[in-house]
Amino acid sequence: MTLPAALFFRPPLGGAWTLALLALVVGIVLWQGLHGARWRWAIVPRLVSVALLGWVLLGPSTYEATGETDPALPGLVVLIDTSASMAQRDVLLPGQPSGGSRLDALRATWLSPNTLKRLDDEADVRLIAFDQQVWPTSSLRLEASGRATHLYDAAARYRDSTLVILSDGHDTRNAASTLMPPEPGAYSTAFAVPVGATSGAPDIALQAWAHSDRLFDGQSTPIEVQVYQRGFADQPATVELLHNGEVIESRGLVLDVPLQHVMFEVQPELPPRTPTQVHGYTCRVTLNNPDESYTTNNDENVYIQVTREKTRVLLVEGAPSWDTRSLSRLLGTHPGFDLSAVYALGERRRVTLRGEDAEGVDLLTAEELAGFDVVVLGRRVERLVDEMWASQLVRFVEQGGAVVFAKGRPIEPSTPAAQSMLDTLESISPARFGERVAHELQFTVSEAAKGNPLTTFGDDDVISRMPGMVAATRVRGQQAASVVLLEAAQGSADIAAVSTLRVGQGAALAVFSEGLWRWELLPNPLAQYESVYAVFWTRAMQWLASGGEFLPGQDVSLSLDRLTVEPGEPVEVEVRMRYAELGTLRPELRINKPDGSTAVVAASPNGAPGQHQARLTPEEPGIYRVALTVPDRPDLVAPEHPVVAYFSVVDRSPELRDTAARPEVLQALAESRGGRCLALDEVEPVIEHLRDIRAARASEDVAVYRFATWPVFGLIFAGLGIEWLIRRRGGLL
């Protein structure tokens, strides 16, 4: 190649700056020459010097071979997939009577001592294992146990290295769209070695959960089961529900679709003299054809906590009405409630009805208030209580109690003292109470409450078919965190029927309407809905008492943020004391693990009054039992009857939902970096590539500046010198 053809420019100052500088200098020289009458031809040597200097500043260059050999070996990163899908035994190697695991197939080929030595002779080899994490390894005794595969993330870490990716092509993060591959080149080439069958192993999986995981004795709840299958189309299967190891119900299925649902209804019972108990159920799916390589996802445990402790309810009513009369009749005859009531009959007469557990002479004291789970307020309660009691009620709710505003505004603000009491109670109400509206109102379930157990009666239109209310209370601004359950079917948005609000550790429910008693006395055409009134109030009171922080009859609660987790996921355990003065206690957690071992964990204060927490990180799949005791206060939690919770560790890794190898994913990744896919025994292309890199380094071309030599600079100085002499002789200097 001739010099002009091989020449290229690389100005040190940059092309734009260099041209601008040269244009300025040439302009100055020409201006001086044109404005000088004598010796105008003297600018010729100056222009020659400027032209030579500009040529040098443009950086004329060519490539030249250095002829020097780089002694360092090129780098090679070998990425080894250790996710759970690599444990699938679907690779048949020569000399093996049956299929081996995908990881074993790689050990026998690319990770064999002979192959690794050949690679070591040509490159500086680094072995990197990856699943949901990435780490260097020097040992080949790896296990395929990762619960996820971050293939693209691992490859992106080595964007500027030569890669060999040993994988089945899974990427559970689906990160391909966010991957930015480098420009293809010798030093960033990627080769991929797909391993595993592309059809995927047949598998059937099951997930199950209870619609309600806390019940009172005698209640029932559905258990929903989800069955997923791949590779067992049109085969019969059986879904079984087990309790205490025995099958109590089963359903047959035909696996004609990938996903099916099954429902079981359960009603756990409590043994005699047992206040609370956790019932464990097992849902499992079985096949007539047991040809399945992975069976640990064929069953799942469901836990339901049942209590016999009655919900302790205090009803305070200053002006008895049909609504509170119907509610008190329901709660008084229900086996799950212990009702006490204080009524004002006129201005001076008071009637007190004590429940089984109410022993005090005056139920309207702070000490007696602490003994209840739920307080129900009717109308005109200012006839019975004062501002101090209202403040104590607010504290009671904030520390884990519950309040029901059963008949709209509980106080008539006829005096400044009554207005002050109303303001205090409205601080824990879902909304501020407005004026009473007296006309027929029809209500419906709000969008926010669709699917809420408090408003679900088997038919979405049940509420709208029920008799309307005779009156309602306008709402003057909802609390930010309140949830409207029932609202006006048509009309003003400031009219609601029922709303709820979380208040501190407790909860509040407000009924802004009058006439719910009409749901109890239904006409014949609506007789099929006669249970709606009882179901609504029973669910509401149980939610307030046990759906909040504390079980009825307990001053210490134990809650888990999740009942089913995957290995390695944390479980947050929270212990709460109903009253802040109990916050100095140190609760203790005893963890029974699936392998039979036991661990004791102390719950630590989390900064809030009466609250403690602990974090568990289980690794082994199975059932874990958490038992709470308070060593310093056996009166709160008896050591022989600890507060118990269960959770289950289930491996639901997406790795095991579809184990089919994905060579097309690896091919796209390799091609994006100038490489291709290789077979298990095809190591030669990588060896040749590494040798090409070494050969390229041995004859690597280096850019060299041309014309930046002393003769060129001599001509520049000579031209400037000649101009200086001419001007001096002509008397221009």
Account of the protein in words:
- This protein is an alpha+beta fold and 733 residues long.
- The chain has 15 helices and 39 strands.
- Helices cover 22% and strands 31% of the residues.
- The chain has a nine-stranded mixed sheet, with helices on both faces. The protein has a five-stranded mixed sheet with strand order 7-6-3-8-9.
- It starts with a helix and ends with a helix.
Summed over residues and divided by their number, the pLDDT gives a mean of 77
User: Total number of β-strand segments?
Assistant: 39
Count of helical regions? 15
Please state the structural category.
Answer: alpha+beta
Strand % is 25-35%
Quick overview:
The chain has 15 helices and 39 strands. It is an alpha+beta fold and 733 residues long.
List keywords for this structure.
alpha+beta, single chain, 5-stranded mixed β-sheet, 15 helices, 733 residues, elongated, 9-stranded mixed β-sheet
Task: Reconstruct the topology from this structure.
Blueprint lengths: L2 H4 L1 E2 L5 H20 L8 H15 L2 E6 L9 E7 L7 E3 L8 E2 H7 L4 H10 L1 E7 L3 E3 L14 H6 L5 E6 L22 E5 L8 E8 L3 E3 L4 E10 L5 E8 L2 E9 L4 E8 L9 E12 L11 E9 L3 E7 L4 H12 L3 E9 L3 E5 L12 H4 L4 E4 L9 H12 L3 E4 L10 H11 L4 E7 L5 E3 L16 H4 L5 E8 L4 E6 L7 E8 L2 E6 L1 E2 L17 H15 L9 E5 L3 E2 L5 E7 L10 E5 L5 E5 L1 E2 L5 E6 L5 E8 L13 E7 L13 H9 L12 H15 L2 E5 L4 H20 L4
Helix pairs in contact: 2-3, 3-15, 9-10
